Structures are given as structure tokens and as C-alpha cells.
């Protein structure tokens, strides 16, 4: 059965046995929205022709990452970016995940995750944990992480810096995420962090991490890390790019998710024991510490 047939013909995501995933890596020019959209659209069409059904795009790829021009970049939803990506998703029969500069009806500006599918908009979320200068131009979202149920499985979305918060990713996985999508504009100076956190979040949760980042440099702005990557549920890198523009894809089976969670049962043990501390009649930290001391004295 083809990937396209699975997506169109499956009524419940639990019946799907494989994930056909891809990440797109691109540079992004400020003030060149159409050029940015066209470049990514070309990659998406090639990936879709090869069977990819879930495609993660970098953070703010359409507008470019320029914190000094955020107000001019902000869009509503529906707006030109969400409409263009919705049309592309319908054309290619794919689910597309990205992050964009969003302005709500009250004029509040967010760095927002956007998920569109063949039938249009699936979900919109707002980045809660903002990196450095982002705090001066964006409003934090009410909740970190976005969970989207699709016909092939559940996608948890965290934007760039948010992937460094294990609590957010763990919450998404405990709520049913099969894939963690990470649209990013990660700084090259922290490339070692990017490589560590993408593998860690996958291993800790027995989940696939698909992280797509910007590459190159925007004007006099930061140099981006590139190294878009798909990590398997055992924490092993399946495919990883360097710093070139392009895309990579992978097919991961649901059996691999289950095998990884059986091999290292973090989730099962958390559920079995009800969390990281035993339920007691007191929540006094000093009492808990005294219990530990008495056990080892």
C-alpha cells in the first residue's frame, strides 16, 4: 500500500503502520516572501512525489528570521502564508508543519506553530518559551507545545528553543504524540546543543523527532545551524543534513516506536509508579529528605 493510499484511506491513526517523514532545510531572505515560498514548495513537491506525507519546514522560513521587522511580518490566519501552504498541502496530499509570525484579532503578536493538511488548517499554537530577544517582540503562548491528531498519527510540535524543555516534549508524548516536529531557526553557535537535544528528546520518549532548521545567515543577523535531522525512537540519527539547502526523508514504523519503549521503558515506569515521587500524606520536602536519610544511615 502506498503512503498516499494510507493517508487518504485510513480512518484512525492507530491503523497506520509507518510514518513517511521529511524535513526541509532552507535559507530565508527578508522581504522575499514569494521567493521563500517557491523554494520550499519545490522541495515539498519532490518529497511528496517520493512518498513523504509529513513534512516539517523551518521556523519563520516564509518571512525570514529578522526580529527587527516582526511587526511588518506578522500575518493573520488565514493569511497569505497559511493559504499558500494549505494549497500546497492539498496539491501534494501532505501534512506541513512550520512556525510563522502571527497576529491575532486583538493585535497580539506570537511566534506560532502552524499545521496544515490536504483539507486545510489543522492547528495553530503559540511558542511559550522564547529565546533571548524574542521576548521583546513576541508574546508568550499560554501553553508550550501543540498536539495535532492526523490520519496517520499524532504530531507534537515544539518550536526551536522549546525542544530544550524535556517537560513539554514528555507531556506531548504522554498525551499520544508519535512524532515530535521541531520547526527551528537554531543558532550555529549552539550546534552542539541542537545535536544533543534532538537525540535526547527522541530517546527519552521513544518517539521520532523531525527537526527542520534554517541554514546560512540573514544579512548581518545570526548564522543558523542547519543540520536538519530525523532521529529514531532509540535516539539514533536516521538522516541528518549539513548546512546546504535541501531536504531529507525517512520511513519509520510504529513497531520501532513500541520496540524502543519496551527496550528503555521510561514511559511505562512513570505510568506504573505514578510519577517521580511516591504519593504521601505530606508534600513537605524536608519530610521526604528525612525519609531518604534514614534509609541510608
TrEMBL record:
<feature type="region of interest" description="Disordered">
    <location>
        <begin position="278"/>
        <end position="297"/>
    </location>
</feature>
<dbReference type="InterPro" id="IPR036526">
    <property type="entry name" value="C-N_Hydrolase_sf"/>
</dbReference>
<dbReference type="Pfam" id="PF00795">
    <property type="entry name" value="CN_hydrolase"/>
</dbReference>
<dbReference type="InterPro" id="IPR003010">
    <property type="entry name" value="C-N_Hydrolase"/>
</dbReference>
<dbReference type="GO" id="GO:0016787">
    <property type="term" value="F:hydrolase activity"/>
</dbReference>
<feature type="compositionally biased region" description="Basic and acidic residues">
    <location>
        <begin position="280"/>
        <end position="297"/>
    </location>
</feature>
<protein>
    <submittedName>
        <fullName>Carbon-nitrogen hydrolase family protein</fullName>
    </submittedName>
</protein>
<keyword id="KW-0378">Hydrolase</keyword>
<comment type="similarity">
    <text>Belongs to the carbon-nitrogen hydrolase superfamily. NIT1/NIT2 family.</text>
</comment>
<feature type="domain" description="CN hydrolase">
    <location>
        <begin position="19"/>
        <end position="254"/>
    </location>
</feature>
Amino acid at each position: 500500500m502506498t503512503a498516499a493510499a494510507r493517508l487518504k484511506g485510513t480512518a484512525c491513526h492507530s491503523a497506520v503502520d509507518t510514518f513517511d517523514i521529511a524535513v526541509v532545510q532552507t535559507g530565508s531572505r527578508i522581504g522575499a516572501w514569494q521567493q521563500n515560498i517557491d523554494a520550499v514548495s519545490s522541495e515539498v513537491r519532490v518529497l511528496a512525489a517520493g512518498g513523504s506525507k509529513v513534512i516539517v519546514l523551518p521556523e519563520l522560513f516564509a518571512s525570514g528570521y529578522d526580529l527587527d521587522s516582526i511587526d511588518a511580518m506578522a500575518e493573520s490566519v488565514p493569511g497569505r502564508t497559511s493559504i499558500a501552504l494549505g494549497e500546497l498541502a492539498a496539491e501534494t496530499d501532505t501534512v506541513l508543519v512550520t512556525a510563522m509570525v502571527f497576529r491575532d484579532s486583538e493585535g497580539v503578536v506570537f511566534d506560532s506553530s502552524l499545521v496544515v493538511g490536504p483539507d486545510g488548517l489543522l492547528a495553530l499554537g503559540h511558542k511559550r518559551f522564547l529565546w533571548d530577544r524574542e521576548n521583546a517582540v513576541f508574546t508568550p503562548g499560554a501553553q508550550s507545545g501543540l498536539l495535532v491528531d492526523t490520519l496517520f498519527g499524532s504530531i507534537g510540535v515544539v518550536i526551536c528553543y522549546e525542544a530544550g524543555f524535556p517537560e513539554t516534549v514528555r507531556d506531548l508524548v504522554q498525551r499520544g504524540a508519535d512524532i515530535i516536529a521541531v520547526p527551528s531557526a537554531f543558532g550555529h553557535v549552539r550546534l552542539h546543543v541542537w545535536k544533543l537535544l534532538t537525540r535526547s528528546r527522541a530517546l527519552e520518549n521513544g518517539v521520532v523527532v523531525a527537526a527542520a532548521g534554517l541554514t546560512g545567515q540573514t544579512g548581518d543577523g545570526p548564522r543558523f545551524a542547519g543540520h536538519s535531522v530525523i532521529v529514531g525512537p532509540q535516539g539514533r540519527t536516521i538522516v541528518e543534513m549539513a548546512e546546504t539547502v535541501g531536504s531529507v526523508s525517512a520511513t519509520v514504523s510504529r513497531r520501532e516506536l513500541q520496540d524502543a519503549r519496551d527496550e528503555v521503558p521510561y514511559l511505562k515506569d512513570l505510568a506504573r509508579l505514578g510519577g517521580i515521587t511516591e504519593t504521601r500524606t505530606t508534600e513537605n520536602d524536608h519530610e521526604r529528605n528525612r525519609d531518604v536519610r534514614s534509609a541510608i544511615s
